[in-house]
Structure formats: C-alpha cells, structure tokens
Amino acid sequence: MIDWRDLISAKDWDSLDHFWMSQTADVCGEVLVALRRIVPTVERVNGIEREREFARPDEVAPEDAGAARILFLGELEAAANKESGPPPYFQQWERMSEDVRRVCSKLAALPEVTKGAPHMSRGHHAGEVVQLTSVIAAVIRAMVVSDHGDEEVPDGLAASLQEHVATAAVCAFAAGRHFQLALGKGAEPDALRGIKVHNGARNSGRLGGRKAEEKSAIILAEMNRLLHERPYLKPTGVAALVHRRGLGTSADANRKLWERRSRNRT
C-alpha cells in the first residue's frame, strides 16, 4: 500500500496528486496539512491592502513547484472539506452575514477614531451594516411564505427562490466592497505616506529616548562619583562642575536631572 508520506519525502508530486483523489476526506486533510508545511506563504500588497496566501508554483524552489501547484488548484482542499464545488449562495450568505454582523457589532462598540458628523462615524456605519444584513435575512426567510398569507411555498420552489435572493445579496455585497475599495485607492498613497511618517517619527522617538537615557546615565554617574570624592560639595555645585566638563545642556538641567532621580528613589 502506498504511503503518502513516502511520496512527499521523495517529492513525487505527480504520484501524490493521483493518490489523494481516491482517498477519504480525512486522508486528504492530512496531506493538505503536510503540503501547507512545505509551501511558504507570501504577502500580496496593493496600497494599504494586504493578504497572505500560499506561494504559487513559480515562486518556490523547482523541487517544490508540484506541491505549490496542488495547493494552488484547490481541489485537494475541497476534497478535505468534503466539498464537491462552491457551497450554495444561500450558505455563503449565511456565513458571510454572520461574520460581518459579528465584526460590525464589535466595531460599533469601539471608541471613535475620527471626529465630525455622527452619521459618518464608524459606529454609525457598522450599525447600518448590522441592520441592513438583518433586513436581507428577513427577505430571504420570507421566500418560504406565499403571497396569500401563511400558506407555505413548496419546498423546492422556496429553496430556489431563497437561492436566487441569496445570490443577489452575495454579489451585491461583493460589488459594494470592491466599489468602496476602488473609490478609496485614490487616497491610499496619502495614507501610506502618513503611515511611513508616523512609523518614522515613532522609531525616531524611541531612538532619541534611548540616547537621552544613555546621556542621563552618564551625567548621573559622573555627579555621583564627584559627590563621593568631594563630600563637601553640594549637588548644585557638582551639576555646574559636570556641565563645565562638557556633560549636560546646562548646570540647571543637570541639577534638575539629579533631583528627579532623587525623588524617584524615595
């Protein structure tokens, strides 16, 4: 009996591709996990959009191209998940709307990151998403009831009607997302510049903070040494003496630094 682990060890990807097609979903899942450990992920970037996916065959070492091809085609993943094809749009909509409502409920509860008109706030937009997706869900549920009141539509027809409405809902939702992203592309260069400036300032501040701490430590160490060597001097006099030796921006700054250190120790 063929062991798929041996095929992977030998990097016999063609034989592995034929092997999994006759296996159970559990075995396909094990093969899928093993291939995902071999094929690296790469980050796709466009403006501020980012996503990670498994590398394509032409992006990996030649000996691993076959493994990347199996992942890229997606048939193994579908077999592992017991999917013969894309799930019905009704199922897609149920999953999508549930995920969207959960995320938007969390967003609506967060503090606002912008100021201005309330109806343009993040919380308002998130709340609208929750409300509108609930309306769509109600419309889809209504497909099982006829126009004559409580009389139910035949199961086959009801399922067909629900699938049609769900198809329109999924496509409209995807179209709206792509439309919003397309409109926002014009502002993404400014956003990227802002991110770079922010990150640069933060890194510069951290570097400056470390340098300032190092300089302060040198000044304090020198003042401490002089006070031990010359106990008749006061911190004010030592602060001036250290400054004359080129340490610190001024005698007063050195004195304040010493006082802050003394307060923190008490």
What is the tally of helical segments? 11
β-strand number: 2
For the biggest sheet, the summary is: 2 strands, antiparallel
Alpha-beta classification = mainly alpha
Task: Choose one word for the global shape.
Answer: elongated
Low-confidence stretches: none
- Domain module count: 3
Radius of gyration over alpha carbons?
33 Å
Question: On the 0-100 scale, what is the average pLDDT?
Answer: 85
Straight-line distance between termini = 76 Å
- Largest sheet, order of strands side by side? 1-2
Could you state the order of secondary-structure elements as H and E? HHHEEHHHHHHHH
Query: Approximately what portion of the residues adopt beta-strand conformation?
Result: under 5%
Helix content: 55-70%
Describe the structure concisely.
With 266 residues, the protein is mainly alpha-helical. It is built from eleven helices and two strands, in the order H-H-H-E-E-H-H-H-H-H-H-H-H. Strand 1 and strand 2 form a beta hairpin.
Structure description:
- This protein is mainly alpha-helical and 266 residues long.
- The chain has 3 domains: 4-80, no CATH class; 89-190, no CATH class; 208-265.
- The chain has 11 helices and 2 strands.
- The chain has a two-stranded antiparallel ribbon.
- The longest helix has 42 residues, at 188-229.
